[in-house]
Write a structure and sequence with these properties.
protein serine/threonine kinase activity; 3-stranded antiparallel β-sheet; Tyr_kinase_AS; EC 2.7.11.1; ATP binding; two-stranded antiparallel ribbon; Prot_kinase_dom; 101 residues
Length: 101
């Protein structure tokens, strides 16, 4: 996945939606990225949003390479631990917003 991200960055593309649902394994068990519907190229951008467990709650503004790097780290976390990162934090924020508003 890191090689694929490096390659698309070299072409000016941000994936913007790295998560397990957007990864496949090929016959050699290498990770293959797909679903570039939410990707961004220059000023053109998709409308997709990352899964709540794969975006940094502190992200604000337009997509940046650092955001995809954060999502790549989150993807590696899932591969290693089998658990989604930040899911409980995001749910807590959503619950707080529902209660307060």
């Amino acid at each position: 996945a890191a090689e694929a991200i490096s390659y698309i960055y070299s072409k000016g593309v941000l994936h913007c939606d790295l998560r397990p649902a957007n990864c496949l394994l090929d016959k050699n068990l290498d990770l293959v990225l797909y679903n570039f519907g939410g990707s961004r190229f220059g000023k053109l951008s998709g409308k997709g949003l990352p899964d709540s467990g794969f975006f940094n709650p502190n992200d604000k503004g337009p997509p940046l390479e650092a955001m995809d790097v954060f999502r790549l780290r989150s993807l590696l976390y899932v591969i290693i631990t089998g658990r989604f990162p930040h899911k409980s934090l995001i749910q807590s924020i959503a619950n707080y917003d529902i209660i307060v508003n």
